[in-house]
């Protein structure tokens, strides 16, 4: 299952050198994961209200390949690479046209109301099948 999201670079996303500040790529891919879940039919706010379950990044491995600049139109690609009963691993990329700028492998877990890992919600498991 994969998903693409368009993101525009705003002035607030850039640093003194005029390029996207490194931490903002993490925000871009977070948006990509949220929209990936939405496309899979998962309402995160509803899930939290009903069960107390939220998603948290457990691990991220990132490569910064080339800079993005003010007003660039970027594409955030999110693709499921594997999953288990309690975690999802995704490959995410940020591109400008066909040029890769940032790549990450992200492991996300479901966290219950007590702050401990729990099984993935059944709605997400069904969407991943």
Automatic annotation (TrEMBL):
Alphabetically ordered keywords of this record: Hydrolase
Pfam family, one: 4HBT
Gene Ontology MF term list: fatty acyl-CoA hydrolase activity
InterPro entries: 4-hydroxybenzoyl-CoA_TE, HotDog_dom_sf, Thioestr_dom, Tol-Pal_acyl-CoA_thioesterase, YbgC/YbaW
Domain Thioesterase: 18-100
Gene3D superfamilies: Hotdog Thioesterase (3.10.129.10)
Family from the record: Belongs to the 4-hydroxybenzoyl-CoA thioesterase family.
Family annotation (NCBIfam families): thio_ybgC, YbgC/FadM family acyl-CoA thioesterase
Protein name (record): Tol-pal system-associated acyl-CoA thioesterase
Species annotation: Paracoccus suum
Gene name of the record: ybgC
């Amino acid at each position: 299952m994969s998903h693409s999201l368009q993101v525009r670079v705003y002035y607030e996303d850039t640093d003194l050198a005029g390029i996207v500040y490194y931490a903002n790529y993490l925000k871009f891919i977070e948006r990509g994961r949220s929209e990936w879940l939405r496309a899979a039919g998962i309402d995160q706010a509803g899930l939290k209200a009903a069960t107390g379950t939220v998603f948290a990044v457990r691990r991220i491995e990132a490569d910064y390949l080339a800079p993005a600049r003010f007003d660039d139109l970027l594409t955030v690609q999110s693709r499921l690479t594997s999953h288990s009963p309690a975690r999802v691993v995704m490959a995410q990329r940020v591109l400008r046209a066909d040029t890769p700028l940032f790549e990450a492998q992200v492991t996300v877990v479901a966290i219950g109301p007590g702050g401990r890992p729990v099984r993935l919600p059944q709605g997400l498991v069904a969407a991943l099948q």
